[in-house]
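DM from R.C. (forwarded with permission)

"hey, sorry to bug you on a friday — could you get me a structure for this? deadline for the figure draft is monday and I only need the backbone to look sensible"
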Amino acid sequence: MKTFDSVIPYLKKSLWKLSIGVLMLILVNAIQLIMPLIIRNTIDGVNINGFSQSDILRASLLIIILSIFTIILRYLWRILIDGNSFFIEFKLRESLYKHLMKLSQNYFNFTKIGDLLALATNDINAVRMLLGVGFIVAVDILLMSISSFIFMIYINIQLTLYTLIPLIVLPFMIYFFGRKIHERFSLVQDSFASLSGMIQESITGIRVIKAFAQEEAELNRMKIYSQDFIDKNINMVKLSSLFRPAFGVIISFSLLVVVVFGGFAVIGGEITIGSYIAFFMYLSMLILPMFEIGWFVDLYQRGAASLDRLNKIWETEPEIADNEDTDYNITEINGDLEVKNLSFGYEYVLQNSSLTLPSEDEQNILKNINFTIKAGETLEIYGKTGVGKSTLVNLLCRIYNPKKEMIYIDGNDINIIPLKLLRSSIVMVPQDIFLFSDTIANNISFSKPEISRESIENIAKISAIYKEIMEFEKGFDTLIGERGVTISGGQKQRIAIARALLAEPKILILDDALSAVDTNTENEILNNIKEHRKNKTNIIITHRNSCFSHADRIKVIKDGIISEDVTHSDLLEEREFCRE
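My reply, with the result:
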């Protein structure tokens, strides 16, 4: 992807705004270019032709009228051009967020939150500055520099050529400084991403930090990241600060040329005083765009560096997505599930060339898993921590992609089922619960925001959390902290279960989602779920053997394989896994 390919569609959509804005900008510049001619004619008229007071007043009135038009037009083009850049900023941020929502879970396992925060804030803001202020400056530079140069030639071509001699070095300066600014701004954004990530991580883990009395250590770590961010900003500012004064020195030489050679030309009668003043005004109009070149280069390099970083995200394709094999004729899932010879292993990343890559069988966490569950049945998958239970359910939800012809739902290979249909039909409640910083009611109704309060309360009763919620001062309107830090682990799990039940999925997966509740509450919840979801498929993942009576079949996973396949009536207490 080329740097600006991602913003061209938004520029095309707002082409009419930009066109009208540029037209107004041209009119403003035209008025500014007329001003020196009016002043020249007035001064020469006074000196040569003997202008009357009425002539001077007319010229003054014309300047005032033109100035008022300039103010109005300048206001309008700022609204159209600079205002449009905020619209593009909104669209870019929306596009970034949509794309992040499409990316697979594995992408976020290896991407720092700080990097994403920097992209969504500083980088998109830098792009907005380029498309707003930068665009205005670019048009201004192009129009004013060419127009001013033409008028300078019109007044005196020889004096114009003299003033251009010091400006020859400007293209070389722009190339050198522009490349360096691009490099240093990229380093600034990387440092900002690291600092944001560190702060986000510290705030998220504040309870751990306090529990281990590591506040001072974290403060020192923050100082290191902050100092690095400051150092990289200072390095960039040093370069930018050198860039503009260097421009100023060169432009000062051009002014000196005008003062010296222009003064001699007036004394020698080659040009009039009015023409000399007008020439000086046009040179000032040429100098301002020259100064703006430095500003534009700065804005351009910042915006381009940020777009390069953003494009890397947009170029990242989700590992798990619909493809040419997807069958969009599948519009409903009933809940029949079949797993055939399922083996799966996470990729190994060798950090040291001396390490030997394990064999495929050694890499596999799951090995030759087979089972079938009919729609409406409840399956329990039992096993100790680390045996692959969560990996299995992640494959059922296609958080990770299984190989073809290993998992079937309703007789269809899971890989050809439209991903949106699959994800909306299967809801998993993990052990590590995430709740939003919102009311309890809004957390429960996450999948159905418009549902009635009565339905929310009924589902809370099924998950055995209703009574405890009503004990809070504001009941279901109680605000819970980020990630649910203001409530207990058991309460978080039951609210998450209520949220899942309200979605009414065809397949419900509880992945150790009852680990923080006592046995009595666990039995109550499972009895309620069994009654509430009579004709729907349920999968219970657990490392405890206290809920076997609720399952139609029980699969025991040990060392990545199914070591037991039993029913509750098989006298489970005599099985080896029950005594482990």
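R.C.: lifesaver. The beta strands are 337-344, 366-373, 378-382, 407-409, 412-413, 426-429, 507-511, 537-542, 553-558, 561-566.
me: no worries. Residues 348-357 have pLDDT under 50 and may be disordered.
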